[in-house]
Amino acid sequence: MMFSGIGRGKTTGSGPRGPRFAMLAEVRAYWEGLRNGAALPRRDQIDPRGIAGALEQVFLIERIAPGLARFRLAGMGISDLMGMDVRGMPLSSLFDPAGRTRLTGPLEGLFRDGVALDIWLEAERGVGRPAMEARMLLLPLVSTRGVTDLALGCLAVEGVTGRAPRRFAISALLNEPVAVASRVGPVRELAEDQAAFVPQDTNRPARGRPHLRLVKTGE
């Protein structure tokens, strides 16, 4: 099953606590269901079928340096917000300069200490860029190397997408310890192929190969 992103000019959701943001609860519940006691879920446990209702807005990030991470996989809704394929791009590209600075410490805490992040966002406004609110959930994952250098994320938005790219200011950031201890491994090249950054026509939704897909198997 292929996934398209949020359409330009389309209004979604009903507020930061409404149905649109229910996908965050779906992703969190799925992540919690994969845990074994206090242990963090592993990357190889993630099955897109378990979060089918949120896949367009789900992504996977990888730590590349202290306080920095980049997209490893992303649903089409994320690419639509930026007007391009975001795989390989830094997570900070979604934020305004102040947001990037504010995110650095908490993001490193996510990987180093096993902390879940719940981030409340407001999009920058301008010509063709109307009001938009969003919430981002970041949940630590253990890679196949046994270290916490990955995170499962979900970005749920409320408002009209408008003209891409859309970048966000952080209005609130909550962190929640979810693991007793976490290890961060050295930076290495990704095992999964990375696509080049290809800007899209900002007046049309991003197209191309689906980034996350749900595969149905026979009964």
Counting DSSP H or I runs of 4 or more residues, the number of helices is 3
| Proportion of strand residues | 25-35%
> How many strands appear in the DSSP assignment?
7
What's the CATH class of the domain at 11-34 and 51-177, please?
Alpha Beta
* Portion of residues within helices: 10-25%
Structural class by SSE content: alpha+beta
Q: Topology as H/E string?
A: EHEEHHEEEE
Rounded to the nearest angstrom, the radius of gyration is: 16 Å
Question: CATH superfamily name of the domain at 11-34 and 51-177?
Answer: PAS domain
For the largest beta-sheet, the strand count, sense and barrel status come to: 7 strands, antiparallel
List the uncertain runs.
Answer: 1-18, 187-210, 214-219
Keywords:
219 residues; alpha+beta; Beta-Lactamase; 7-stranded antiparallel beta sheet; 3 helices; 7 strands; disordered C terminus
